[in-house]
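Reproducibility note. Readers wishing to regenerate the assembly model reported in the main text can use the exact inputs given here. Chain order matters: entities are listed in the order in which they were concatenated for prediction.
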Amino acid sequence: MLFGFHWDTSSEWAFAVSIFPMLMIGMLVTIEATIFGFFIALVLGLVLAVLKGAPTRIISWPAIVITEFIRDTPLLVQLFFLYYVLPDYGIILPAFLTGALALGVQYSAYTSEVYRAGLEAITQGQKEASRALNLTTSRTFTHIILPQAIPRIIPALGNYLVSIMKDVPVLSVVTVLEMLNVAKIIGDRTFDYLVPLSMVGGIYLVLTLVSSAGVRFLDTRLPKMGIPLK
Amino acid sequence: MSEPIIKFDKVVKRFGSVTVLNELDFEVAQGEKVTIIGPSGSGKSTVLRILMTLENIQDGVVYVGGEPLWHEERGGSLHPASEKHLHRMREQLGMVFQQFNLFPHMTVRRNITEAPVRVLGLSKAEAKDRAEELLAMVGLADQADKYPHQLSGGQQQRVGIARALAMRPKIMLFDEPTSALDPELVGEVLNVIRKLAEEHDLTMLLVTHEMQFARQVSDRVCFFDKGKIKEEGPPEQLFTEPREQRTREFLKAVLDPD
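Running the prediction on these inputs yields the following structure tokens for the assembly.
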């Protein structure tokens, strides 16, 4: 029994049907962790991108070093660090939050590059025209640069959403009950790993295909010339 | 002659180790139409870009309307200009770019009204009226709701001219306005600039390779070479009997490429 559901081991099919609701509960946790991690990656990535683009090195350098460090160390190492070391300094987070935070921090290094590339792709000419028209720097950023950069940024960010989802099983090592962990527990208790693990693979395939199709659809609908301003 | 509206006083501009403007002295009178010609790399576009405050200078002083552009006077000496000073000085200048640089995500109308509303504080209705008037002047009255990519290059550049004029500058800078255009679209843009030159009191500074056009519209033509004015004079004189050997070579190469 798990989450109040009983498994039926009378046949493989009956077993599969009976554990499906348990895996669905795990899938919800997987999706929650994905969304949470993605949100952190979006916000932290933007902060890092802005800092990296700062005119003074005192600000840009630490951001560049932090990004490199995050990108060049394994997610699992960062996760263990957050989970086992932070409590020594009095910061005790639930496993789920720690996991989502680790995912968000890891991927913020990648999203910051996406933001930066998107912003840098806007030609110098657009900035010069804005300056010649005496538009302020902030107005230029919000109304000239951003509307043109966002449609370039979104598809690349969407691809990282899919990547984050595929990295969520790593959180099982710090006891987060995401889908893979649920499947493993079912296997531990019933001595049948084949069915639950195959189902996890299948569900992941569906999730990935659906979200990839969503990203592609979004890409075709985005205005290539920038978000139109009438 | 009254105080020049533009004055370069021993201006030096370097890009790294390359000296683009070498102690340039250059003056433009109020309402004068001046064309700058010269080989690429001679610093002719740089003159416009310095005036539009897109490029800083290393030495010398640039005056616009009698006031230093890149400097502020404090306690009798000149200091590098603040962004506030540059903002105020820019109000006198408008620029038309070789690559148009229209905002691709804005309609033609919004391209023209954005800065008048945001910077000059015009109401949306006032800015719209002004845009309509200018679009009629450049012959695009019926294109206000289109986006730049729906227009031809010549039409885009005419929008570029209208957008700059909407800020009511005293000085208009044209940086090779027809160089990015297909040959058959050059005429429509030149006609707009010609009309502007004939009907308005604007001071105009034009960098171009269209020699015939330069001859027709300008009061004075300046030949730039190696960061200095090698020769200048009324178009008739400069084009028909240039004094300098270097000018003759350049004109021969441009007008008679074979």
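We highlight two features of this model. Residues 8 and 62 of chain B are 5 Å apart (CA to CA). Residues 183-199 of chain B form the longest helix (17 residues).
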